[in-house]
Specification:
alpha+beta, single chain, four-stranded antiparallel sheet
Length: 99
């Protein structure tokens, strides 16, 4: 089994909320369920290529799946980046044992 975690940007715009809702529905339909940690966004901080400090707010979305289809996730990751107008969306797959 794999736990897939996706970090999605948070903004207080109608477009962002719409993108989040579409993503949540897609994941629930494909994987039979989705968990979104939306109560308190995480705060990201990093150094951008130009040397400036960059910040964002993100929420984590998780799904569990039997198989990890790397090709599908690469394509979906690129789709999410376009949808959320980001250079990149962070997706990670963690092998888990569920008793």
């Amino acid at each position: 089994m794999f736990l897939i975690q996706i970090l999605l940007p948070v903004t207080n715009t109608e477009d962002s909320q719409s993108a989040f809702n579409v993503t949540r529905e897609e994941l629930a339909a494909r994987f039979g369920g989705v968990t979104a940690y939306t109560r308190s966004p995480a705060q990201g901080l990093w150094t951008a290529p130009d040397g400036e400090k960059a910040r964002d707010l993100v929420v984590m979305v998780e799904v569990v799946t039997e198989e990890f289809d790397r090709s599908w996730w690469r394509t979906y990751q690129a789709d999410l980046a376009r949808r959320f107008q980001q250079e990149e969306i962070h997706v990670r797959a963690i092998s888990v044992d569920i008793p």
